[in-house]
Design goal:
- The protein is α+β, with helices and mostly antiparallel strands.
- The chain has two domains: 1-153, Nucleotidyltransferase, domain 5, CATH 3.30.420; 163-252, no CATH class.
- Helices cover 24% and strands 30% of the residues.
- It has six helices and eleven strands.
- A hairpin with a 3-residue loop joins β9 and β10 (219-225).
- α1 crosses α3 (130-143).
- The protein starts with 7 loop residues before the first strand and ends in an 18-residue tail after the last strand.
Length: 252
């Protein structure tokens, strides 16, 4: 008789330039135990909002940097009355959303020194996202040392695209020197949507092709053949987004 996998609590972090989102998942049940967000990091007035079965927690407080944001999130997670967990020691591992893994990573990876260097190197490809992603990793590792921290890259899912899909009609030297190519984004979303579609349609990836759409602050569509991304496009011309100018491919 096989033993059931032990229950584990996994903390998921999505750290942006002015916000830190977090959620705790009970595994292997894949059940959310609660989530929260620290907003307006670096502004005169910050705020944390958290939802869990114990109730909502909302506090206004200045959050000068990502270190303070992680400290605020840790306190909310373990709040005696409305916390999600009793103690940070209950967390078994941490997952970090990282926007750009470049050409190095086609899968999620356990974070070590080499991974941190790669994320930092790819800051030039994602200057608005990778730097705060790095800050989130550093501060979470400081708050939760000794645990495995895993980077989940938005670009990883699209590393299966063939050259004819990811290369631009530009001089080859620009790719060799600056790595200018289409990388694709929102990969975690496209992967999930495709898998969910398979479940709802009662089909399997091996004999199914789908087109997935990610619609949010950014928007993109992806062509998926037999479970793998073969082409993707950021909808900066046809979709309203909150901060990008709709004039050129955002990948450039």
């Amino acid at each position: 008789m096989e033993r059931a996998a032990p229950d584990k609590k996994i903390l998921v972090i999505n750290c942006g330039s002015s916000s830190l989102k977090y959620e705790v998942w009970q595994m292997p049940q894949r059940a959310s135990m609660g989530r929260g967000i620290v907003e307006r990091i670096g502004e005169p007035k910050g705020r944390i909002s958290q939802k869990s079965p114990k109730g909502d927690l909302n506090r206004d407080k200045q959050v000068p940097d990502h270190k303070a944001a992680m400290q605020l999130a840790s306190a909310a997670l373990t709040d005696p009355e409305r916390g999600i967990i009793g103690d940070l020691s209950e967390i078994a591992g941490v997952g970090h959303r990282v926007v750009h893994g470049g050409e190095q990573y086609a899968n999620s990876v356990v974070i070590d020194g080499e991974v941190m260097k790669a994320i930092e190197k790819n800051c030039e490809l994602a200057p608005l996202h990778n730097p705060p992603n790095l800050e989130g990793i550093r501060e979470t590792e400081a708050a939760l040392p000794g645990l495995k921290h895993v980077a989940v890259f938005d670009t990883a899912f699209h590393q299966t695209m063939p050259p004819e899909a990811y290369m631009y009609g530009l001089p080859w030297e620009l790719y060799e020197k600056y790595k200018i190519r289409r990388y694709g984004f929102h990969g975690t979303s496209h992967r999930f949507v495709a898998a969910r579609a398979m479940t709802l349609m009662k089909r399997v990836p091996e004999n199914t092709n789908v087109i997935t759409c990610h619609l949010g602050n950014g928007a993109s569509v992806t062509a998926i053949e037999h479970g793998k991304s073969i082409d993707t496009y950021d909808l900066i011309f046809g979709a309203e987004v909150t901060w990008r100018r709709r004039q050129a491919d955002v990948s450039l």
